[in-house]
Design a protein that fits this description.
Strand content: 15-25%
Number of domains: 1
Number of strands: 3
Structural class: alpha+beta
Number of helices: 2
Distance between the termini: 32 Å
Shape: globular
Length: 86
């Protein structure tokens, strides 16, 4: 099974956005983008709901390279995301 992970801003109608640092999954705190996108996608699908139905990748104008930005359908999902990752 081939897993494709992408972090590109998506067209969505979700009102609630949140930014948080990408998780450091390695011991040397090197950010591995492929692993982080895959890990974050799995977490969002498991705890928030389906991609494009409850959340989508987003981008904000002043976003830093070490931050991921996610848009949510519901504010409570944004709060859960921020409690876990911020």
């Amino acid at each position: 099974m081939v897993i494709k992970s992408y972090y590109l801003p998506e067209i969505h109608g979700f009102s609630y956005t949140a930014r948080a640092p990408w998780p450091a999954l390695s011991l040397d705190h090197q950010v591995d983008w492929i692993d982080n996108v895959h890990y974050m996608t799995q977490w969002l699908d498991s705890f928030v709901g389906p991609h494009w139905a409850r959340w989508a990748w987003a981008q904000e104008q002043d976003q830093r390279t070490w931050e991921c930005c996610v848009a949510f359908l519901k504010d409570k999902d944004r709060t859960l995301f921020l409690l876990k990752w911020a």
